[in-house]
Amino acid sequence: MVGFHGTVGSAGEAAHLVPAVGRLSYGGDYNPEQWPEEVWPQDVALMREAGVNLVSVAVFGWAWLEPAPGEYTFDRLDRILDLLHDGGIRVDLATATASPPIWFSHAHPQTLPVDVDGRRLTYGSRQAICPSSPAYRSAATRLTEQLARRYHDHPALALWHVHNEYACHNAHCYCDVSAAAFRRWLGKRYDDLAALNDAWGTAFWSQTYTDWAQVQPPRATPTSSNPGQVLDWRRFSSDEHLACFIAERDLLHAISPGVPVTTNLMSASCANLDYWAWARELTGPDRLVSNDHYLVATDPREPPAQIAYAADLTRSFAGGPWLLMEHSTSAVNWQPRNLAKPAGQLIRDALGHVARGSEGAMYFQWRASRAGSEKWHSAMLPHAGTESKIWREVTRLGRHLAALADIEGSRTEAPVAVLLDYASGWAQEAPNQPSTDMTAFAEIARWHAALWRAGITADLAPPQADLTGYRLVLAPALYLIDDAAAVNLRGYVERGGTLLVGPYSGMVDEYDRVRPAPLPGALAGLLGIRVDEFHPLPAEKTVGLAVAAGPAGGTAGGPVGSTNPPTASGIDLLASGAIGLVWTESLEPAGAEVLARYVDGPVAGQPALTWHRVGAGLAWYAGTRLADGPLRTLLGALAGRTGVKPAHPVPPGVEAVRRRHTDGRSYLFLLNHTAAAAQVDAAGTAPLTGTDLLTGDRWAGTGTIPAGGVVVLAEQPSGTR
Question: Quick check: helix, strand or coil at residue 191?
Answer without folding.
Answer: coil
